[in-house]
Fold each of these.
Amino acid sequence: MARVSDRAPGAAGSGLNDDIGEDKRLALYRSQVVIREAEQRAFDLFLQNLVKGTSHLSLGQEAVAAGFAEAMQPGDLSFCTYRGHSHTLARGVPVEKVLGELMQRDNGLMRGKGGSMHLTSEEHGVMGSYAIIGAHLPIACGSAWRAQYKGHKDVSVCFFGDGTTNIGAFHEALNFAAVWKLPVIFVCENNLYMEYTPIGEVTAVQHPAADRAASYGLERIVIDGNDADAVYRTARTAYDKARAGRGPSLIECMTYRHSGHSRADPAKYRPEGELEKWKLRDPVKIYRERLLQFGVAEKVIAGIETEVRKVVDDATETCKAAPPPSLDILTTDVYADGGWAWRN
Amino acid sequence: MAELTYREAVARGIAQEMARDPDVVFLGEDVAKAGGVFKATVGLYEQFGPLRVRDTPISEQAILGAAMGAAMTGLKPIAEIMFSDFFAVCFDYIANEFPKSRYMSNGQTKCPLVVRTGNGAGSRFGAQHSQSVENWCMMIPGLKVVAPSTPRDVIGLMAAAVRDPDPVIFFEHKSLYATKGEVPDGEIVDRLGTAKIVRPGKDCTIIALALMVSRALAAAETLQSEHGIDCEVIDVRSLVPLDTQTILGSVAKTHRLFTVEENPRLCGWGAEIVSIVADEAFYELDGPPVRITTPHIPLPAADILEDMVLPTAERIVETVKRSLES
Ligand SMILES: Cc1ncc(C[n+]2csc(CCOP(=O)(O)OP(=O)(O)O)c2C)c(N)n1
Ligand SMILES: [Mg+2]
């Protein structure tokens, strides 16, 4: 297949270079659209009371998930947070499985035992979504240590928010990974807010992750997290470095969440006009325009969008029709023998 | 057969498993080149090298988190937390991460690791380096919890813990490190979830753990020789899984129950055992079950104060005698 850049090469440094290619760009776009459509659907289903409990959407942050996932090799491992639907979908986990878990159905990824905050699909390399801030950074170090010890070539990637940079586990993990030179990548999605408090109000440095990198002997990296090409390129460099045995990377991706922190949070704490300003830099919109600039036909782009919408629609119907979890799983898998016996 | 100290048994137990399985790795603060602050891991670094026996920064969360990530993806890590009191700074892994990942993932995630730690009083270290916190772990579904009292059990239960597919918290008692015991040659592999009747008797059952086992045995000798009371002493060894059959069987024979715990009064492990016996063997009992514990206070540092609060053989003798005579 012809490379997009063969038809419409961009200026060097503009993000339109030809190192990515059309196939990968279409994959990056599709991945972002899947996340956008599935997350929007999750929100709608929440309003219809069909998504119970809580859910934390990545609307507006799609480029980070798509960019990192598309740069991965099979076998690379993702460690996510409660805001992890995006990263789970980006690894190819079916929409139906994710929505099923959010809707607490038997067809859910963990059959309703984990819920929205703990999406896990080891067969896709999604090694869990963690809801205790910072907990998974050391866990990703351990996975990377295993790769280093056994001579495996996979890289462990750990996604977290700006707020996470102020918890002890972040600093313990960064130092540990740097000292042991582990093949792990720490990805901070700086969406400017913790739950409701702006990160700048509670952090001693401007860039909560990148400005701490020097403390651990790491390069300071801040990128445009709304540009999937920029994310993809940065990710590729970091994976190459990790695979070559040159240690961890810490990457701060500037982005913004379009919705509230969780559930129906109306996000009233945001200053007037901030959301609108960021929506001009909507990652899905930016990427669509870029594809057109590259000469990808509108028909091709619209085809992807229609196909994805159908996937999400079908998944929604399947989940609505699915039964709730069967009660016999209540006490399974507490221990490795499959049961929950704590006594004889 | 050889005579080993409890601390030497720790190193031998770990070495036995590391020699057997190259996926067994060991990490902790000062554990490698220095051989551990309690010198319980001397020789492992020399025998197995720097890739398998690793010194870490003072980062308890990183130690346990890394152990978990390694365990999830194929290794069988043993992690040391120097003092069990420090569980409080990394309790997220013990309470939220190790024990819940398998369940939350509907069986996808495994966590075969061992956390070993120095537990218990007697070293005059004061309130933050002396606690017995096995009850902190016993209350969490998904964990297994063991606490050996002899060098032989250290090796056998360590092997069982390392080979177990679940997260096991392994409590070594600091005041036992210097004690000695006979250990057979060759490989020793025990079973989790098995209590041991360490002294058979017919008049009452005394259940103890770790350091309290030797005190219960000493009390039993005095009760026999001076008061004609024949005590059955059970070393519970494994709190989770709990060998309730051995406990209930003993109570069915002796009809009286005492527990001897280092935990402060509220929610010590003995409370759970008393509750099980009350539920399932109430009509076997000839009198109220009695818990002998430390009082509900922080542990003091000074020797005469610390000696006042830990259950002693004398206190056990007094309590048993008074209860059986009343
Ligand atoms: C240890 C801990 N403290 C607090 C919380 C509650 N909490 C959940 S999400 C969140 C905000 C995290 O912000 P950030 O790291 O920026 O991630 P984002 O939600 O923006 O993706 C907080 C405080 C928690 N889950 N865990
Ligand atoms: Mg944030």
Amino acid sequence: MYKYVFRRIYQLIIVFFLFLVTSYVLFDSIPGNAFQSLLLNPELPREAYDLVIQLYGLDKPLYERVILYIQNFFRGDFGYSYVHYPRTPIELIAERLPRTLMLFAMVNIVAFYTGFLIGKILAWRRGSKSETWITVTSVFSYTVFYPWFALMMLWFFGYKLDWLPIGKFLYPEKWYDSPYDSDVIFVSMIKFIAVASILQMLAFVYTRNIESISARRNVRFTSFMIIIIGSFAYWNTGEMLNQKIYAMDIAYHMILPVFTVTVVAFAGTALLTRTTMMEVMKDDFILTARAKGISQKRIRDRHAARNALLPVVTSFIFTIVTIIDGSVLTETIFSWPGMGQLILDSVLREDIPVAMASFSFIGVFALIAHFIADISYAYLDPRIRIQSQG
Amino acid sequence: MNILEVKNLNMSYETLEGSVAAVKDVTFSLKEGESFGIVGESGCGKTSVAMSLLQLQADNGKITSGEIIFDGKDIVKLNEKELRDVRWSGISIVFQGAMNSWNPVVKIGEQIREAIREHYPDKTKEENTDKIDELFNIVGLDSSIADRYPHELSGGMKQRAVIALALSCDPKLIIADEPTTALDVVIQDQILNEIRKVQNILGLSLIYISHDIAVIAEMTDNMAVMYAGSIVEMGNTKNVFANPQHAYTKMLLESTPSIIGPKKKLRSLDGEPPSLINNDNCCLFSYRCPSPTDMCKNRSIEMKLIKFDDNHYVDQCCMDCG
Ligand SMILES: Nc1ncnc2c1ncn2[C@@H]1O[C@H](COP(=O)(O)OP(=O)(O)OP(=O)(O)O)[C@@H](O)[C@H]1O
Ligand SMILES: [Mg+2]
């Protein structure tokens, strides 16, 4: 297992360098030379001009510039934003990223969880009426033209019913005299969700060894309730009590985008799960499990679904990788000022340092996600662990 | 006392071409501690009989009539919950192709533990671990196997572990459906010995299914010869071997080499197994029969087991032919 991890890390590093070089060369070769053209912008202050020339070594040959770029990358130095001068790309990303992560991590977890659950049930109820209907609905939401669908949702829930806010991630009027920056709130929310999910996962892992099924179920339920109660307590004490109303405001604004993207995103998982489950259910070990007298539900969850999980996890990780670039569309429609909008703006307005920093960041993010995918895959499928040792 | 009585069991698969009568009017019984063999060529319905006993036939397979009395209860009439109780702790099965009987992502020990937990929920973890060690010991496996994944074991080890699995809930009856196909001859022999040993130690009843009549001779007290879904000859294994009556049984015996006795030329079985779709109740072997009677050829005699000798029954069509 360790050997496997090390080999993965080693491959990762090579791919990462290739990625840095390629992305630099691609930017450099944009027709008309984006670097130079921006420098001709008369609005740019003189000192900024010199700084940029020096920073990127724009007068040097290509390979020297690449090396300089890589060095700067590791110093975390991407220069300054042309548009938001004197803010740096890192500052901008640090501000935008939590918003995007919050929204899309939420969406993806919800979408994959429900998708997997529904796909599992679909496969198990093969041939029933409910199966047909849910499958048809899933195919619809899988193939629907997403921007149209999102606008329809906005129109219906935001305008027609007027239940949910249209666009933006907060009501500015509520925040006028707020002691907190929205970023602070976002970060607390992310921290809270991360801690809660890790606790839940730990509870799940540690209860695996309880022999009696009913005792295990009870312990799991108790731990779940404790986490829920703990969350309430957490948000109602001290510092967090003050942050609560702002967090609620953001959460309220998240409902519609989360729901919309979930409806579109769950279907792919559901259909994938359904297909793989149906394959797995033909396997002999399902028959063994039935012969053992195991309950249908347990066979479905423990034997069939557990084996059908592998391709689903892969597709989940691939989706995680595309969270940031995939957020462009959604963030534009719901006016959610996250990474997607930052990328779109920086590209449209030729804010090269920000664009490059964002793309490098996406690259790092993608690589890390793939790495996690490989590791979790090895964890889920013992056969991979063995092959990788050889 | 009879632990199992199968009475006039009929089972058929619904297919697009029509209904396939895989089990036709099968009747046999099994005493406690006894072993019963079912032999026949591929596709004659051996697995279908075995699956019916546990109500595990494919979704398109339906039992149209008959009774399966196990331990005083008719299995055909049980509901899902009651069936789950009978499965594994009453009747357990070693599947044909037991190599694939293991869930690839769960450790061997855990898969055995799961069965025990289902039927004996009050046992502690330590008791279960001891039980698994003991089972592995019986089938000649090291107890460390419990912590391995299926793909880490050889075919023979997997097969032994499957036998341990089958024993895990102290069943009264074990069905072994060609448990040694896909194993090499030496391992086959070891596994057969293992099964026999286990059966003797634990006093289990055994149904042994095979297409190899020599193995049946070695393993069983009583036997049935199946052809195209029906039992054509049944009785004490020794009697059937000493004095085969049905033409099909004779052909099966002549196609198997024997190490004792004078050298004989081996005979191969001519012809194809018949189609099982929608046919009358006459002998389906007649067109392969070396010397069928006129009645048989005219299809004017129905199939029916009649008594030939003490504990030896033969299909009436073939009493005079062969
Ligand atoms: N699910 C099914 N649907 C339709 N027909 C089936 C199905 N399962 C089995 N059959 C048919 O039923 C007949 C008996 O099959 P079965 O598997 O019981 O034979 P078998 O004696 O176990 O053969 P083998 O020695 O090859 O295992 C065969 O003709 C087979 O084609
Ligand atoms: Mg078979």
